[in-house]
Write a structure and sequence with these properties.
The chain is an alpha+beta fold. It is built from 6 helices and 6 strands; from the N terminus they run ββββββαααααα. Helix 2 crosses helix 6 and helix 5 packs across helix 6.
Length: 175
């Protein structure tokens, strides 16, 4: 916005987030999955919901309309919901976004919740046995290809990397 953008729309993370109007221009912090079918996440209220951001440009004014949807619940499909479907959740998320203390606390709680999972996914062992296996060229054979993709995702996805980095910072401080 300060650099001249008319809108900022984030659409990577799997769950929708809040939005704000900054200097008259919309910032959407996450639209959620559009069509991401994983049976274990169907109907969980997080990965199966999202919204489309409809931007209207009229005489220098930008208007944001939300089009909430549900996806991949009982079957593989996307269906629109009433615009007010997420009003309560948006109010909650937007209150957190607008309050730096709440935002930092929410972030710290997320890191604490995800830290063990993230470090487990990265297989951070750091002991002599695994160091030796790595140097001998065996470590790659211990990993399944899908685990390598997970590790790559943790390092290349900004959201995952940020949690992983903060988790590592926490462990260093505790050591």
């Amino acid at each position: 916005m300060d650099a001249g953008a008319d809108a900022v729309i984030n659409h990577h993370q799997h769950c929708f987030s809040g939005y704000e109007i900054y200097k008259g221009k919309p910032i959407c912090y996450g639209l959620g999955n559009f069509c991401f079918d994983m049976p274990k996440y169907r109907s969980n209220g997080l990965w199966d919901k999202g919204y489309l951001a409809k931007l209207t440009f009229d005489e220098g004014q930008i208007t944001l309309s939300r089009m909430p949807y549900s996806q991949c619940d009982e079957e593989l499909r996307v269906r629109l919901l009433e615009e007010s479907a997420f009003d309560e959740k948006f109010s909650e998320l937007n209150a957190i976004i607008s309050d730096e203390v709440q935002l930092l606390t929410s972030y710290q709680n997320l890191v604490a919740k995800e830290q063990k999972k993230m470090l487990t996914l990265m297989n951070v062992f750091g002991n002599k046995i695994f160091d030796k296996l790595y140097k001998m060229g065996y470590l790659g054979r211990l990993y399944k290809k899908n685990r390598l993709y997970v590790a790559k995702d943790l390092l290349t996805c900004e959201s995952h990397y940020d949690i992983l980095k903060k988790s590592m910072d926490n462990l260093v401080e505790e050591a």
